[in-house]
C-alpha cells in the first residue's frame, strides 16, 4: 500500500505540535525528531519508507519551528520543555511507547526521553550527536575535543566555538541568518566531504571571524546542493524560517545550564537499558565521533548499543537516506522481533 504523508496538529493547554504522519493509524509508532534549523520534512525520506515497512511514522515540527508553537524567551527552548512536548504528542497519538529517532538538537531530546522516561521508549536512535549523559553543552563536549586538530591555544572551544558565539552575540547571529533565509538554507545544507578529515571545522572559528559566514552580514548566495535538497525542499525550509525567524531555532543553544541540570536528574545516573542505535557521520567534522573520544560516554552508559557509520556529512537523513533507512530497518528487525509488524 502506498501511504500518503498527511499533516496534523496536536494541541494541549501548554503547546501546539504540528506533525507529519505516514502509515496505518494502528501501526507501531516510530517518531522522528529534527534539529537546527530544520522541519518535519527533514525526515521525508524516512516517513514513507517506514510506513511501507509497517510502522506509523511521525515527524513533528519542534518548538520554534514550522507550524508548532513559538515562544518569546530563550528559556522556553530548554530540552526539558521539548521532551514534555514529545510526551504530549505521544499521548495524543494514543500509544504508551514509541521508537524515537533524533538528529542534531533532536538527539538530546530523544536521549533525554530515554534517560528520564524509559517507560515511553521502546528503543532510541541518534544521528550524528552521540549520547552525553551529563547533557549536551559546550562544557560537556570540551573534554572530548581532538586537540591534535584543535590546539588549545588556537581553538580553546574546538569545533564547539559556534555554540559560544550564540551565548555572546545572539542578536547578531539571529540577524545574519534572517538577512536572507533562502541564502542561509542554501549555505547550511551542504553534503559532507572526506577532504575535511583531520582539519579544523569551519564552525571552530566563528568567534574569531566575527560571526558565521566569515563575519558577513548575510549568508553567501551559493548554488543549491541538490544531493541534499530539491527546489521544493529549499523553499519549504526558507518559507518557514522567513515566517518564524531564527529566534526560536537559535534559542536552543541558549540553555546550557538548564540542560545540564536536567540531565543530572536522569534515572539510573543516565544509564540506558533499552536498545540504542547510533549513526556516526564519517564526514561530519563538528560532531566528529570516529577519531575523537566523543562517543565514549555513550558506550559506557548504553547497555545495548549498536553503532553504524554512514559516509555522510551532518545532514545524514537527507544526504544518505538509503543507508540510514537500511541501518534503521536492520536494527529494528534484530532488536524488536516481537514488535516488528511484518
**Helix content, binned percent:** 25-40%
Number of helices: 14
The largest sheet has its strands arranged as 1-2-4-3-5-6-7-8
- What's the number of structural domains? 1
CA-atom Rg in angstroms: 19 Å
Mean pLDDT comes to: 97
**Which runs of at least 5 residues are low in confidence (pLDDT < 50)?**
none
Q: What is the H level of CATH, i.e. the homologous superfamily?
A: Alpha/Beta hydrolase fold, catalytic domain
Secondary-structure element order, N to C: EEEHEHEHEHHHHHHHHEHEHH
Percent of residues in beta strands: 15-25%
The name of the CATH topology is Rossmann fold
Please give the number of β-strands: 8
Going by helix content, strand content and strand pairing, the class is alpha/beta
**Proper CATH architecture:** 3-Layer(aba) Sandwich
Distance between the termini: 13 Å
CATH class category name:
Alpha Beta
Question: What does this protein look like?
Answer:
This protein is α/β, with parallel strands linked by helices. The protein has a single domain, classed as Alpha/Beta hydrolase fold, catalytic domain (Rossmann fold). Helices cover 35% and strands 16% of the residues. The protein contains 14 helices and 8 strands. It has helices spanning 44-52, 79-93, 106-116, 138-141, 161-168, 170-179, 181-188, 206-209, 231-244, 247-251, 256-263, 296-301, 316-319, 321-335, and strands at 6-11, 16-22, 29-33, 56-60, 98-103, 121-127, 272-281, 302-310. Strands 1-2-4-3-5-6-7-8 form an 8-stranded mixed β-sheet, with helices on both faces. Strand 5, helix 3 (106-116) and strand 6 (121-127) form a beta-alpha-beta unit. Helix 2 packs across helix 3. The protein starts with 5 loop residues before the first strand and ends in a 7-residue tail after the last helix. The relative contact order is 0.16.
